[in-house]
Amino acid sequence: MMEVRRICCIGAGYVGGPTCSVIAQMCPEVTVTVVDVNEDRIRAWNSDSLPIFELGLQEVVDSCRGVNLFFSTDIDEAIKNADLVFISVLSNPEFLAEGTAITDLKNPDRVLIGGDETPEGQHAIQALRSIYEHWVPKNKIITTNTWSSELSKLAANAFLAQRISSINSISALCEVTGADVEEVAHAIGTDQRIGSRFLKASVGFGGSCFQKDVLNLVYLCEALNLPEVARYWQQVIEINDYQRKRFSSRIINCLFNTVTDKKIALLGFAFKKNTGDTRESSSIYISRYLLEEGACLHIYDPKVKAEQIMQDLTKPTPSERHDTATVSRLVTIVTDPYKACENAHAIVICTEWDMFTELDYERIHKAMLKPAFIFDGRRILDSLHDQLQHIGFQVETIGKRVNQRTPFTTSGDRSEMDQPQPLKKNKL
Question: According to its UniProt entry, what is the function of this protein (predicted)?
Fold first, then answer.
């Protein structure tokens, strides 16, 4: 079998960059070159400010860059010199979770390698296997044919997304029955057949993989004349969309059925903590729903850059365009969470950054307009509910009744106020 001494990875994004950086660190005798057509991205990989934030990534890159790890825009030269080429790691599906990608790469549950059932395909599988065997136990390296490999990737993410949508659907039921979705999740998670992972109710899943892979599965099923299967997986996406809209409607409902010209502090824009990635973040959708209602958003995230937030909020979608001037008028990006909350009617927590549990909420409450609301879309303030209510906050969270709200109405009829109001569809 040919010894692999030079690897080329095409694509310096969230997968290719971290994956090949770890390969370079774990295989010091192998030269790894990561190439991309995006000159700014390659320039960032060669700087002290990497283009992505991932815990531990900076240390990995610093230990190898310029030694056996290189980032370049010279794609042709890198391919010509390579013994093995990754094309965004497509022949080797990744199962990385952003925020823990470096740990996942160094201590994977499994490594899956798919290839053709031909002598050439099997030779390629063994070449790639030899790289991973530098640090991954042989019994954790799974080899399959190409279709099995690719479907395993889609199915894994679809199953995880399905669990999130399942618990989010139960959270809606909990809110109207008086149950607590955290207690329900704990009860069912102790069943060894189910387990406790991915049973955290929230404003919905995001990231680059879950929605994309579920929709790819839907497309495959439709193309292969399996409409019932396609509809089953499509419902996972629809529940996710429903959860985002339901949460947004709840904010509007609690703020006396209008958020027009009201300042709302939105804390967290990344799709999850410990990453700067905003792709398919629920924060984008919730922000858009509130902007459609005329809310003035002051957004804070410790790792997402202001230009990325504005790009996400103004990027056209298949169904509508978003007016840049209107978004610029209604959205303010701040670098201090306390500044975001000053004179705000409400705080909306969309990302579970640890720092949001450590804020001085008494200070924040004093600076807010009254009544002051907190909408915890990530269930990270559960242990603080009593304290927050004592301070004076009206606390709303996912999958649990915290406050018996007293709506601002003269009719005394609570029925309409207790139900989420439909969102208007004003174009930005």
Answer: Involved in the biosynthesis of glycosaminoglycans; hyaluronan, chondroitin sulfate, and heparan sulfate.
Catalytically annotated residue among 9, 174, 209, 221: 209
What is the C-alpha separation between 26 and 278, in angstroms, rounded? Answer: 29
Does 16 belong to an annotated binding site? yes
Has 212 been labeled as part of a binding site? yes
User: Quick one: pLDDT band at residue 323, thresholds 50, 70, 90?
Assistant: confident
Buried b (16+ CB within 10 A) or exposed e, 208-222: bbbbebbbbbbebbe
Q: Is the peptide bond before 407 cis (omega within 30 degrees of 0)?
A: no
Q: Is 341 a catalytic site residue?
A: no
Given the DSSP bridges, would you call strands 394-397 and 373-376 parallel, antiparallel or unpaired? Answer: parallel
| Cα separations in angstroms, 11 against 4, 18, 131, 317, 327 | 20, 11, 19, 25, 32
CA distances from 383 to 314, 357, 358, 379, 412 (A): 36, 9, 12, 9, 33
Question: Is residue 11 annotated as involved in ligand binding?
Answer: yes
pLDDT tens sequence across 112-137 = 999 898 998 899 899 999 999 999 99
User: What does each C-alpha distance from 275 to 45, 51, 101, 271, 423 come to in angstroms?
Assistant: 16, 11, 10, 8, 30
Instruction: Report the C-alpha gap between 41 and 51 in whole angstroms.
Output: 6
Q: Tell me if 173 is assigned to a ligand binding site.
A: no
In which band, very low, low, confident or very high, does the pLDDT at 317 lie, cut at 50, 70 and 90?
Answer: confident
